[in-house]
Amino acid sequence: MRIQKVSSFMDYIDSKFQEFFTLDREISIDEFVVKFKDKSSFITYNPKKPTKWGIRIYVLSDARTEYICAMLPYYRSISTNTLIRPNLPVSSRIILQLYHRLLTANPEAKGHHIFTDRYLIEILLAQELLKLSCYLTGTISTNRKYVPAVIIHGKIQLDILLLAWKDKRIVTILSSYDALGTTTIERRMKQAGTVNIIKPNVIINYNMNTGGVDKADQLASSYCFMRKPCK
Fold this sequence. Notes:
With 231 residues, the chain is of the alpha+beta class. Helix content is 29%, strand content 30%.
């Protein structure tokens, strides 16, 4: 198989990641794209991303320290066919696959809290993670399957919170950890000066713990070992 050598190397890296670091409770899962533009069926293109062409990698990192603990390169159907839980959506299987690697390294791990964005989150995923004593929080698109057509107030059902909150725009968030609660924070406004804003705790918690993968990607780009050759 074309990816056999790369897969063996990635498995080795993952084992070393987990050998030298113990994750905190909060986990961030997101994707970044390794810049690569050549003839390959694995190349993805997204005109909205800073790196438009490249190989997509799903990354699990510690939300506090931005330490990467597991990586899952996406080789289209080759990757999809090897993911666990084929009865679930691909996005849910990706997160479960990454978390399964942590459980393999530490079978007694419990109580982790995963933060991710609307491209990977599903209500079914939150329910599956609860069975593993793991929580999930992230923004969610209102057109996702099983999401109510109208979300006006926080609604708790099956230990899962769905909340629509408007700041500059409406943000819909799902959480299997946070309950309904608010905190008053200060915000500086150009015209009104400093004002007090009542903000849901689930939004505050989400904003604090979602930048782990993005920060790791930024550091990897700044200290990249790749250099352009001089002709």
